[in-house]
Design a protein that fits this description.
This protein is mostly helical. About 85% of the residues lie in helices and about 0% in strands. The radius of gyration is 21 Å and the shape is globular. It has eight helices and no strands.
Length: about 260
């Protein structure tokens, strides 16, 4: 917790310094006229930003719920899950970044009234994100012991059970990599269209209405792999709903 807090504070301070000092950003006057309130803009930001924050909360919470369930299954399952979760989180940073790029590029095209640009920007990020996650899923399936070896000594007898379970969990995790990338990028695409409230509801339904019950049901019947199948089910539901939402939004904008 302390490390995360210090890292976040340092990141904020460094970013603020760049915005204040860089010649391309100085004109924005980051901390200028703090005493003047622009309430219409504040309200507009809250209307767009609050659903985004809640969506992130739904997604983050279900992954931490998976940690709790793994702890109930047993310490070996929890240790293996910690390794697999770190690998999956590291890989997820790429589609997360592509989703943020999609928000910016789709938003610019949307603001310019360029329907073709909106679709190109969105689908380009989508293909890159899903394609990358497909490659990572293949890596998890083909060389799982190499990945686990970054965290544990594979030759140590004391680690044998955790290593074997981590390899098995990686195969399950590979199942949801593609849909995880799809939902991350697609959420960013929709944010570029200022569409955040309905995706928030989609996240609530997919993660907590479908994924969490499935994972809890399967976890104590087939073991820790059931947690990953539940996550995959929830992520697939969210990815499908958001992709359909994107298709509908871009079709309606092009028809207008």
């Amino acid at each position: 917790g302390l490390a995360s807090t210090c890292s976040s504070c340092l990141l904020f301070a460094g970013t603020a310094f760049i915005v204040l000092r860089h010649r391309q950003f100085r004109r924005y006057h980051l901390f200028g006229r703090l005493w003047r309130q622009d309430w219409p803009r504040f309200i507009a930001l809250w209307r767009i930003g609050l659903p985004m924050a809640i969506t992130f909360g739904f997604e983050t919470a279900i992954f931490y719920a998976a940690v709790i369930v793994m702890g109930l299954i047993g310490p070996t399952a929890l240790a293996a899950h910690a390794i697999v979760f770190q690998i999956a989180t590291l890989i997820f940073m790429v589609p997360l970044g592509l989703g943020q790029v999609a928000t910016v590029r789709v938003g610019r095209a949307y603001g310019a009234g360029d329907g073709g640009g909106v679709r190109r920007a969105g689908w380009s990020a989508y293909v890159l994100g899903v394609g990358f996650m497909g490659l990572m899923a293949a890596l998890m399936l083909l060389v799982p012991r190499v990945l686990v070896g970054m965290f544990l000594d594979l030759q140590a007898p004391a680690n044998a059970r955790v290593v074997d379970l981590s390899v098995r969990f990686l195969a399950y995790a590979a199942v949801f990599q593609i849909v995880d990338g799809a939902q991350a990028v697609c959420a960013g695409m929709l944010r570029g269209l200022r569409d955040t409230r309905l995706p928030m509801l989609m996240a609530a339904i997919g993660y907590w209405g479908i994924g969490a019950p499935c994972g809890a049901f399967l976890a104590f019947r087939i073991g820790g792999g059931g947690v990953y199948l539940g996550l995959a089910t929830g992520l697939a539901a969210v990815a499908s709903l958001m992709t359909l939402r994107w298709i509908g939004k871009t079709r309606s904008s092009s028809s207008r």
